[in-house]
TrEMBL record:
NCBIfam families: PRK07139.1
Protein name as catalogued: Glutamyl-tRNA amidotransferase subunit A
Pfam families: Amidase
Keywords: Ligase, Transferase
Enzyme class, spelled out: ligase
Domain Amidase residues, every copy: 29-423
Enzyme Commission number(s) of this protein: 6.3.5.-
GO molecular function: ligase activity; transferase activity
Keyword Protease: no
Length: 439
């Protein structure tokens, strides 16, 4: 795993002086020197349950919540000798894709404070340079897009490959434990520790990643999205295609169904907001949340969900409630689920023909937080990463290049449960990308 100049205490001191609103809790160093991840330290998103520290998911509504158990992924890492360094803030309760929606202040891009870091795993991304790896969650692109904005590796496994036990649910059919690392090999090492089925999560499955080796893919599909991306990204993709061709990799450029891809965002929003409305209904000040004495239950409920929830979260939950209204379900929620099936069938028909499907992780470098270079929400490449959450296949975001000293990444997908193959192919791609960047 990546060697660090910083010690645990050195990294801790650096983060204590950090002004980016990233840290929710500082862990004490443990006397745990055994295991495959011994002496490696990590950050973890505050929407994971841990008995030590805070687990408020960056929401005022859960400020005093103290879990009695550790999330499975956290416990597996501890058992493997890894040291938790910090619990980090995120967009409130995992909802929000910018890093601007934590109840404890916005988190910006450490490479350029005028740029977005992305989210909701914003704190995980903003702390990666202080840790060996950073644990987060990925419901739409919450690890892989921040990875692109900071030039790191972001890996979202197949749905169910890693137990979600202890991860606070946002959208149950989309949520995936995911992580940022400094290179593909580090991501493999983390995968080998945290993958596996869990009796506490009935959606979890066994996927073998024990013997991952660098492998050259035979057939790679490049999605033709040139009209949706910046010229400097197009040029880098062209170079990558050429170097793969020269190494006898069969390349096919696919013109995707753009009309279908444009439905990814509304389908994702309808399904995720609806599931969030259901999943977060227990945060009412009675079942979960901050309870105030001497108030009627109706008053507790209203205060918890008005004062305890940020405006962005309230907006999404209002939309979710609207989609689930009896008179609206057929028109919105049921149609979105049908469209999800169409998207899944279409994308799987491509994934099953190739070892890899490749496309830009974003249309360019990290956008400005505000102003004329802010996020272009109409571009397919602004939300295309969510397709792998709708489908459930593994997806990895690999550093591809830079422009004006800011990075941009490549998205690489493979068919469902082929995580080991994807990681092996990614080792190969990482090497080839390094070659074109060193020309």
């Amino acid at each position: 795993m990546t060697k660090f100049q910083l010690s645990f205490q050195g990294a801790l001191e650096k983060l204590k002086n950090d002004k980016n609103n990233t840290v929710a809790y500082f862990f004490q160093e443990k006397n745990n020197k055994k295991g495959v991840l011994a002496n490696k330290f990590f950050s973890i998103k505050s929407n994971f349950a841990t008995t030590e520290g805070v687990s408020h998911a960056s929401s005022i509504s859960l400020l005093n919540f103290k879990p009695s158990y550790n999330a499975t992924v956290f416990q597996k890492l501890i058992n493997a000798g890894a040291q938790p360094l910090v619990k980090v803030h995120n967009d409130e309760l995992g909802l929000g894709g910018k890093g601007l929606f934590s109840a404890f202040g916005k988190i910006v891009n450490p490479l350029d404070k005028t740029k977005l870091i992305g989210g909701s795993s914003s704190g995980s991304a903003a702390t990666i340079n202080f840790v060996h790896f950073a644990i987060g969650s990925d419901t739409g692109d919450s690890i892989r897009r921040p990875a692109s904005f900071i030039g790191k590796v972001g890996f979202k496994p197949s749905y169910g490959a890693v137990s979600r036990y202890g991860l606070f649910p946002y959208a149950t059919s989309l949520d995936t434990v995911a992580w940022l690392t400094h290179n593909v090999l580090d991501s493999i090492l983390v995968s080998q520790v945290v993958f596996g089925s869990d009796e506490n999560d009935l959606t979890s499955v066994e996927i073998d990643v024990k013997n991952v080796e660098k492998t050259k893919p035979k057939k790679v599909a490049f999605l033709d999205l040139d009209a949706e991306i910046e010229d400097y990204v197009v040029k880098k993709l062209y170079k990558l295609r050429n170097i793969l061709k020269s190494d006898q990799v069969e390349i096919e450029i696919i013109k995707p169904d753009l009309n279908l891809l444009k439905t990814i965002l509304p389908v994702y929003e309808i399904i995720s907001y609806s599931e969030a409305t259901s999943n977060l209904s227990a945060i009412n000040g009675i079942t979960f949340g901050n309870t105030e004495k001497n108030l009627k239950w109706e008053e507790i409920f209203i205060r918890t969900r008005s004062d305890g929830f940020g405006l962005m979260l309230q907006k999404r939950l209002i939309w979710g409630s609207f989609f689930l209204e009896k008179d609206n379900q057929e028109h919105f929620f049921i149609k979105a689920k049908k469209m999800r099936t169409l998207i899944k069938n279409y994308y799987e028909s491509i994934l099953n023909k190739f070892d890899l499907v490749v496309f830009p992780a974003f249309y360019g470098i990290a956008p400005d937080i505000q102003g004329e270079n802010s996020e272009k929400s109409d571009k397919i490449t602004n939300f295309i990463l969510a397709i792998s959450n709708l489908v459930g296949n593994p997806s990895i975001s690999l550093p591809l290049g830079s422009y004006k000293n800011l990075p941009f990444n490549l998205a690489v997908d493979s068919k469902i449960n082929s995580d080991a193959e994807l990681l092996g192919f990614s080792l190969y791609l990482e090497e080839k990308i390094s070659e074109i960047n060193n020309e």
